[in-house]
């Protein structure tokens, strides 16, 4: 049963004020990671998410011990491991490129770390069999990596990590080389095994749907710093900045103005439309007359029949893309283009075509305002 006093599990992996500088080609210093502090509990799946160059891979590599931080400490289970070499940390990494040994069989690839540990032949056979079964590789043990598909090779890499009974598994964009369908299958597989074994996992990706679907906690990084962290729903529904709103929710940003602030209710105008939001979804201390940026998620825009029927907001379909479960619209709105996603329900929804005038309604519950 849930114990209300036990909402936060004890910290397992703790990063404190981690800094990493690199020297670039012209002798200048690049701060790749700037004062990153982070706590991961045992059994948690934590994802570092952010755009290219934000420092997520460098952070993961410091946790693995492949890079040494210029400042700060890394602790595992209360012990300082900042200076411990990678082979003495029980934190295998699963790479985007699989990094299997091409001249070794699948069995020997999976058994590799156990051999280095001097495990008996019998124990090795047993552990490799368990790991192979766990990731559905049974029957492929005698093959070589070149004789497997990309998805199977990545499952070998996962089995090779699992067999070590790791303290933490580190994943560096492991699905990037797989095609769309296999990416989703393998993602489900990773999550299933992680949950089953209660493994602590740290996962790096720039793919928001991977982060949302896999994680207990998402850590969003930008320019070497953590800008927000929390469970997927909290990050998605309560982004704390336009950057996060855009990165995780592909939000549209519209120029608006504060019309009125009363009893923690803020009324905003966008063109002729008015929206009243609770203060919690607006910047603090905003005043009437101030310019704001309104974030509107694509799925929070309802596209309906022809404009001119008294609708306050209207636009013109620029591009209409029917993709099965949803239709994605690019809509000319004011001086810009906004994106709207509509679920398709046969007989109930209509797919509008390029050039059609449409009325637009914004779901007020999902709007957020930021300082312009
Ligand atoms: P990506 O998704 O593209 O891998 P990332 O978020 O993982 O991006 P990092 O690879 O951690 O980002 O890089 C962060 C910054 O540090 C970048 O500006 C990068 O150019 C720089 N950097 C990373 N490794 C080195 C290195 N060995 N030497 C110099 N600069 C580096």
Tell me about this structure.
The chain is of the alpha+beta class. 23% of the residues lie in helices and 36% in strands. It has helices at 56-64, 106-116, 121-134, 150-162, 180-197, 208-214, 232-237, 242-249; strands at residues 11-23, 29-41, 45-49, 71-76, 79-80, 93-95, 168-172, 200-205, 217-222, 225-230, 252-262, 265-270, 273-278, 291-296, 301-304, 313-322, 326-333, 336-343, 357-362, 368-371. The strands form four sheets. A six-stranded mixed β-sheet has the order 6-7-8-3-9-10, with helices on both faces. A five-stranded antiparallel β-sheet has the order 13-12-11-14-20. A hairpin with a 2-residue loop joins strand 17 (326-333) and strand 18 (336-343). It is globular, with a radius of gyration of 25 Å. The model has no long low-confidence stretch (mean pLDDT 92). The protein binds adenosine-5'-triphosphate. The site of adenosine-5'-triphosphate has 13 residues, from strand 2 and helix 1. Adenosine-5'-triphosphate (ATP) is lined by residues 22, 24, 30, 32, 50, 52-58, 206.
Strand and helix map with partners:
Layout (H helix, E strand, L loop, with lengths): L10 E13 L5 E13 L3 E5 L6 H9 L6 E6 L2 E2 L12 E3 L10 H11 L4 H14 L15 H13 L5 E5 L7 H18 L2 E6 L2 H7 L2 E6 L2 E6 L1 H6 L4 H8 L2 E11 L2 E6 L2 E6 L12 E6 L4 E4 L8 E10 L3 E8 L2 E8 L13 E6 L5 E4 L1
Parallel strand pairs: 3-8, 3-9, 6-7, 7-8
Antiparallel strand pairs: 1-2, 1-4, 4-5, 9-10, 11-12, 11-14, 12-13, 14-20, 15-19, 16-17, 16-19, 17-18
Helix pairs in contact: 2-3, 2-4, 3-4, 4-5
The protein binds adenosine-5'-triphosphate.
């Amino acid at each position: 049963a849930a114990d209300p006093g036990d909402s936060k599990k004890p910290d397992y992996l703790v990063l404190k004020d981690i800094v990493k500088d690199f020297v670039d080609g012209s002798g200048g210093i690049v701060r790749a990671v700037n004062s990153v502090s982070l706590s991961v509990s045992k059994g948690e799946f934590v994802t570092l998410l952010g755009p290219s160059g934000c420092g997520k891979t460098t952070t993961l590599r410091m946790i693995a011990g492949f890079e040494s931080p210029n400042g700060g400490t890394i602790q595992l289970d209360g012990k300082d491991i900042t200076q411990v070499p990678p082979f003495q940390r029980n934190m295998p990494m699963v790479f985007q490129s699989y990094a299997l040994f091409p001249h070794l069989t699948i069995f020997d690839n999976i058994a590799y770390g156990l051999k280095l540990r001097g495990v008996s032949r019998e124990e090795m056979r047993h552990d490799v069999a368990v790991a192979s079964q766990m990731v559905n590789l049974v029957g492929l043990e005698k093959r070589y990596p070149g004789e497997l598909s990309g998805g199977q090779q990545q499952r070998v890499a996962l089995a090779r990590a699992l067999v070590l009974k790791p303290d933490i598994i580190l994943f560096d964009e492991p699905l990037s080389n797989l095609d769309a369908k296999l990416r989703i299958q393998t993602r489900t597989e990773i999550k299933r095994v992680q949950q089953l074994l209660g493994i602590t996992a740290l996962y790096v990706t720039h793919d928001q749907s991977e982060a949302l679907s896999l994680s207990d906690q998402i850590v969003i990084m930008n320019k070497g710093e953590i800008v927000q962290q929390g469970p997927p729903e909290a990050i998605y529904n309560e982004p704390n900045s336009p950057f996060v709103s855009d990165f995780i929710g592909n939000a549209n940003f519209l120029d608006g103005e504060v019309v009125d602030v009363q009893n923690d209710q803020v009324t905003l105008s966008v063109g002729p439309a008015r929206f009243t939001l609770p203060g919690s979804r607006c910047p603090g201390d905003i005043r009437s007359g101030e310019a704001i940026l309104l974030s509107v998620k694509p799925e929070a825009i309802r596209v309906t029949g022809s404009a001119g029927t008294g609708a306050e907001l209207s636009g013109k379909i620029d591009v209409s893309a029917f993709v099965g479960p949803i239709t994605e619209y690019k809509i000319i709105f004011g001086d810009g283009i906004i994106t709207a996603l509509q679920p398709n329900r046969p007989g109930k929804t209509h797919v509008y075509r390029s050039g059609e005038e449409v009325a637009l309604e914004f779901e007020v519950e999902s709007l957020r305002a930021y300082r312009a």
